[in-house]
Amino acid sequence: MSIGASALKWALRFYPPMFLQRVWVQDIAKDFRSASVKLNKSLLNRNYNNSIFGGTIFAAADPFYPVLFYQIFTKKGYKVIVWSKSAEIQFIKPGATDLFFAINISETDIADAEQLLLNEGKFVKPFLIEVFNTSGELCVTVSIEVYIRDLNFINATT
To answer: How many percent of the chain have pLDDT more than 70?
Structure first.
């Protein structure tokens, strides 16, 4: 389903897995090529070390690349399915404060994906998310492998 950036921002803000973990979507660009996200440290997502639970960080990072790619290609007229095929998280420093990250999808990433969708019917690529604390220190890196399949792709060789 293709929706506007503002509607998507509000839907994600109040989507229960995000809302209850205090994940707050600050912005989604109108062209869906970027998003900024804040993880509010709270009693609901704090671990016994008084830092943000790693599962919260992982859950916050998981959906953004797939959701944005889905919107980009749906707006281009494609019928696609998009998901996180795999992910890896590296904890560098405890998230003792609120945490922040930004997602940016370049024109090159979109062009590469579109080329592979046209020629092979699918696109798979990892994207890195860096999560920072309020002092700007890198706390976590998350690699999300995005899978996009063109549901209307017909292989001309078969």
So the answer is: 97
